[in-house]
Amino acid sequence: MTDTSLSVQTGDASFGDYFALLKPRVMSLVVFTALVGLLVAPVPVHPMIAFTSVLFIALGGGASGALNMWWDSDIDAVMKRTRGRPIPSGRVTRDDALALGLGLSGLSVLMLGLASNWLAAGLLAFTIFFYAVVYTMWLKRWTPQNIVIGGAAGAFPPMIGWAAATGSISIESVLMFALTFMWTPPHFWALALFMKSDYDDAGVPMLTVTHGRRSTRVHILVYTVLLALVAGGVAFSSIGGPVYAATAIVVNLWFLKGAVAIWRRDEAMAEADKYAVEKRFFWVSLFYLFALFSALLLDTALVRFGLELF
Question: EC number(s) on record (predicted)?
Fold first, then answer.
């Protein structure tokens, strides 16, 4: 598909198409982790300020998604997983996606600064820049470490939420950042394993393409072990508690079991069962982050309502 065909406006664009540019599934993770970062902070936040802060963090995440789809429309048209997106399908023009991304970027940063503080707004601005420029325009097509380094963009929301509440960065917000950062590589490498030739066809140097699938399986295991160590460290911080500690033990053992199962497989085994183990690990990874951040939230709620378990 040529750039010309990607720029054709069919006139069929709907609100849903423009909303899809914001990557709503990714935005939901941004909203949730940012909200947890804001609520577990040791500073009470007025409900209206909390709502508007999370709203503009979400819009900033959506802006990043629109800019990503604008730049990546050529490779999105090649990959089976993404060819139905609004730009490669011809429902939205690249120019419209760029305008939406830039407009929401400016709006979200400005309004977050006015609603909470300028440290949070600065972190949001850096996150948008990092995802749209450093990851999308540079790392993604240049290095197999794209997901490792680029994962920082998705790890900033809890830190931004914490900054919106406290006006500062602390060890607790850095640990939440690290938890999300270390989770990202095994999550996306599992996806790359069962998407098979998509990244190869698109010329994206994902680890499966540059180093092979055996190496990717080893990397998943290594990063899952490192992730478990980071998750354990959070339990000993001021935001950790008994609910988080128990949850971390269970979900990390579950996640490590899945990583070991992936490590033990070869391609013949994977093909024989349609990559069921890899797909299961990918879906468990989605639950993993939700479970740990929910546990942080529950521990905070117990403390604030005077219901400490120990």
Answer: 2.5.1.141
| 16 Cβ contact list (under 8 Å, min separation 6) | none
Which residues lie below 8 Å from residue 95, measured CB to CB, with a gap of 6+?
Answer: 7
Phi and psi for 140 in degrees, rounded to 5?
-60, -35
Query: pLDDT tens-digit profile of 110-143?
Result: 999 999 999 999 999 999 999 999 999 999 999 9
Please name which of 85, 99, 65 lies closest in space to residue 1, comparing C-alpha atoms.
85
Fold of the CATH domain 12-169: Tetracycline Repressor; domain 2 (1.10.357)
Number of helices (H) and strands (E), helices first, in the chain? 16, 0
Q: Dump pLDDT digits (tens) for 158-180.
A: 999 999 999 999 999 999 999 99
**Cα separation, 253 vs 256, whole angstroms:** 5
**First-to-final CA distance of the chain:** 61
Per-residue pLDDT, 12: 72
Neighbours of 229 (CB within 10 A): 11
DSSP H helices, 116-145, are 118-129
**Which letter does DSSP use for residue 14 in this model?**
-
pLDDT at 9: 46
The stretches in the chain having pLDDT less than 70 are 1-11, 307-310
CA atoms within 13 A on the CB side of 260: 7
Question: Residue 231, Cβ neighbours under 10 Å: how many?
Answer: 25
pLDDT given at position 2:
37
As a whole number of angstroms, the distance between CA 235 and CA 295 comes to 10
The token duo for 174 is 């850095």
What does the domain layout of the chain look like in residue ranges?
A: 12-169, 170-310
